[in-house]
Amino acid sequence: MKSKLKITFNAPVILGFVSICFLATLVNGWTNGRSNELLFMTYHSSLRDPLTYLRFVTHVFGHAGWEHFLGNMGYVLLLGPMLEEKYHSRALMMVIGITALATGLINYIFFPNVALCGASGVVFAFILMASFTGFREGEIPLTFIIVAAIYIGQQVIQGVAVADNVSQMAHIVGGIIGAVVGYIANRRKKRR
Hints:
mainly alpha; Rhomboid-like fold
């Protein structure tokens, strides 16, 4: 007897996040960039504007265009389901939220002339979290050291040497958050 294959909703946080990012990118195209400026991009705006505080978090949903969106979502869809299965939905929501808020606030305070949008900070958090999947108490995985050196080192070098529209700060901050959460979460699991 043949069993039927069925599609499963395996990673609700990741699928929800990708869906929101997709809709934000779609609406941004329809509004010629106005929706990003209003809701999905953080920049140095008045603290009297309530949307300033909302944008500290919602900037991770906005993307400059489809190429930007596809690049980030490829990593999110590749790494996210594995991480959601290992660490559970609540932890992944926390990583996304903390990364969004941290990068939004740091960008607002230290880079007043830079607008920030996109999920690349979240992507870097996921990359560094994933490198902790084989963690054991009292050890630091060599894969983590190599991944951190490659990804974070590259961002530091590009931040110093390359003038582009990519926010290396968001990548570095996201990577640090992912590494810390991955380390702490695995350490707690091993103690149980």
